[in-house]
Design goal:
Elements: H1 2-62, H2 68-72, H3 78-81, H4 92-100, H5 106-164
Amino acid sequence: PDRDADRRAVHARAVDLKASERSVSDARDVAVEAGAICDQAEIELENVFRDIDADLGKLDRAEPERNARATAFPDGYRKEIDPEGEAPLANLPVVRQRIEQIGPHPLVTDVLTRFDAAVETFSTAVKADKTADAQVELLFQEELLARRAIREQLEVAYGKLRGHYKSNPRRAEDFFLREGSRRKPE
């Protein structure tokens, strides 16, 4: 009866470990997808910056007194799109304020609408990416706990076997795999 309880305990822990490993694998797949979506949103944001620069160039040709490009991007738009990952999020409110300083014009309104939409998409993608990465880490920690539970259960079983084979404790070793002790094929 005691052996059956031990077997059930080991089996339950093994099932937990398999489920935990599957959860981590699934979460990693979700994180990879979220990362790809975030990268795509960043590329789209960079493209919106390029389009805005081109549109403001058109506005400068039509109304040079506005100095639209230099107002929105005093150091050029590349400075705004060069940082990778979530780094551009910190500068985006400043860029928006500079675009607003150009003044009222239908083109500026259109630019701000596209800018806001791209920023929202990028911001949402960054949050989703962070959430997915945090979920992977959380589930991986749970997997580590499941692994620890199996190790502890094996240590208990090993102790019981050594106690059972007091006169010849080496017989307890036969119940456990030995890594690296297999004979090489000839």
